[in-house]
Amino acid sequence: MTLPAHHIDQIKTLLGPKGWKERDDDLVPYLQEWRDRWTGTTPLLALPQSTEQCAKLVTYCAAHRIAITPQGGNTGLVGAQIPKGEVLISTQRLNRLRDLDTQNATLTVEAGMTLSTAKAAARKEGLLFPLSIASQDSATIGGVLSTNAGGMEVLRYGTARDLCLGLEVITPRGEVLSTLKGLRKDNSGYDLKQLFIGAEGTLGIITAAVLKLHPVPPIRRTMWCALDTVKDAIALLAYLRVHYGDALGKFELVSQIAVDYAIKNIPGTRAPLDHPSPWHVLVEFGFFTAPAGKTELETILGEAMQSGLISDAAIAQSDSQAEDFLRLRESLSAAQKGEGAALKHDISVPVSAMADFIDTASKAAEHLAPDCRVFAFGHVGDGNVHFNILQPRTMSREACMAIAPAITAMIYEQTLALGGSISAEHGIGIMKKAPLRTQKTDVEMAMMRAIKTALDPDNIMNPRVLF
Ligand SMILES: Cc1cc2nc3c(=O)[nH]c(=O)nc-3n(C[C@H](O)[C@H](O)[C@H](O)COP(=O)(O)OP(=O)(O)OC[C@H]3O[C@@H](n4cnc5c(N)ncnc54)[C@H](O)[C@@H]3O)c2cc1C
Fold first, then answer.
1. Which of 109, 131, 133 to mutate to test the pocket of ligand 1 (most atoms within 8 A of CB)?
2. Domains of the chain
3. Helix or strand or coil: residue 258?
């Protein structure tokens, strides 16, 4: 549906000359997903520069039932930020730091600030905003909250949801809802902010947030371990948690094929160990006190090796070596590019079921697509694996795409059979709307629809997403 010219003119007037774009060349970066999986269309890109301006814009759209797609850094992986004819509202100009309260350990920022800028602002005051994802130089605070992003520090600090104390949101009617008090305790009725976290822009536009900060653990220890099986990785996780509790920050599983393709396809990456091994884990601790230092860690690792849990290990001897380990892990999404079709699945199961899942799903994938390459990696400490199937070398791209639905259906079936989720951290977007119905009960779907209808009766807010 095309938007009549008089609406476009009204919106332009409301936003001022720097508050919109419409030339095709200017729109390309906003309408294309980075992997070229989705491209979109919009009658106008709106760039409000204040909460008030954003509220006026949404009020106008609500009055005229004009559909909206909110967008932050355009790093989402399920197509939810790419408009198909909706007015695209970017938070790019809503990027100010409003407050940093070191005593309350909170940072209040506008939604369009990038995650790495917010982290740097906290770090400047000796505090930590721990959310850590490979896209953090582009992903925005509004985006990470709207997708309830996870990443590599969930084991210790939780997801974006656990790191947010309050929100400012423009509702689909154009009202401003503000819960920016920065309170850690507030049991005065429903916790409304939680509705908008993980809502993928379907319930309103987040314009600002209060983020919970943490002290920075002064001693960091990073290591890379080789293991024979996923079962050993899960046993190692339990073993390290018994010894180190919450000092364990990162626990990332990586398959050998993932290491190989990172080294092959990403310049500057190096193998952390001399010999290949079926599985690897990147482990990182953050300690506050000295006793759990290098010597003790080496002893613990020695014991893990003696008991057969790990076959080899390297403890980073410098910050730059630790960064090398992290860079390898963070390059794994990009490492798959150039290896043909990649059928990607971001799933979670209970940690105790992870080995079972990977074993059963790998065998079933190889049965459906002989010679396929199982490229598995992820935040296995949270029960989350990116279980990707790369096109068999003996098969054309077209033939692989023809069997893709069967492979995905099998993977989701295995996931649900083990009590898991078809979306661990990337969301539903437009990509996973059909499988969502196989995961959620009728009661859950009805309740989600009731919330959507109550807040957005005319379905103007990211209308193609989730439902
Ligand atoms: C290389 C790479 C690595 C990644 N690694 C991880 C990872 O480890 N863990 C993880 O969880 N994700 C990961 N992601 C996914 C992605 O970075 C997240 O989904 C991110 O949180 C989205 O932020 P964004 O600002 O780019 O949002 P966008 O992509 O612009 O939008 C994402 C969704 O949020 C909505 N939205 C955006 N801003 C607002 C707002 N202000 N108010 C309301 N709705 C809004 C959009 O409508 C859309 O539904 C990765 C992505 C890439 C490209």
1. 133
2. 5-90 (3.30.43.10), 97-215 (3.30.465.10), 219-334 (3.30.70.2190), 339-427 (3.30.70.2740)
3. helix
